[in-house]
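Weekend entry, working from home. Most of the wet-lab plans are on hold until the incubator is repaired, so I used the time to fold the two sequences that have been sitting in the queue since the last round of cloning. Logging both here for the record. First:
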Amino acid sequence: MLPASRRFSRALDLGCGDGWFAERVAGSGAARYVVPVEVRARRRSRVRPVLYDGRRLPFADRTFDLVYAIDVLHHSPRPVECLEELLRCAGDTVILKDHTAASGWQRALLAVLDEIGNRRFG
């Protein structure tokens, strides 16, 4: 997942969802401090996220030496702007994992799988 020899001081988890991944990063010792960020609070969450408006993250440039977004950008109405904002807050390490679709049937399949995967979150 992360380089075993690297320990980050501050990590930003953009679109943290229920906080599962933020817990794993913090619990593994990969980062001393993990800031989970979300556009809305969930009824059930493992972490208390910093809420933001989905446009501008409330952090100064290069605040975090690690920023990551796991399966988040495809939910954004402005994914390029979201990525630019993520990069603005990043120091030297960025981890981005998301879905892509190249055709109509792939987009339809992704939509169905995304619905199934996220239905429990409302």
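Second, folded right after the first finished:
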Amino acid sequence: MRYTIEAAIIVPLFLLVFGVCLNLLFYHHDKNVIGSAAYETVAIGSGRYDYEVDDMEGYFQKRVEGRTFLFSKVTGQVEMKDDKVEITCETRKGIMKIALSRQMCITDPEDYIRSIRKIKEIQDENIL
């Protein structure tokens, strides 16, 4: 009889702790999935000038879709400025909320490589 009373107290407590830990694991998993999708989106947008904001938001939604456990509706707003790309993501479920932002400077690697080649050509011409 004594073991039944102890089990009636310990088992629900154990299940509660297990459920809370499982929710925390799912929360951190979803946060990492959303963060990596946001980083990929700005990385793609920073290297190419021909992407539109709608294309990048669609890319973000495609990267997140079906990969989260707790948060089903994730919104991402992309903003392209003169020298950087920024995405702001937000989602919520009950009292839990994930809000993050990723940004990256826009680069033009082709022009950079061309300018380095021109500098090398000028240096080679001056040496000869």
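Plan for Monday: verify the second prediction. The radius of gyration is 25 Å.
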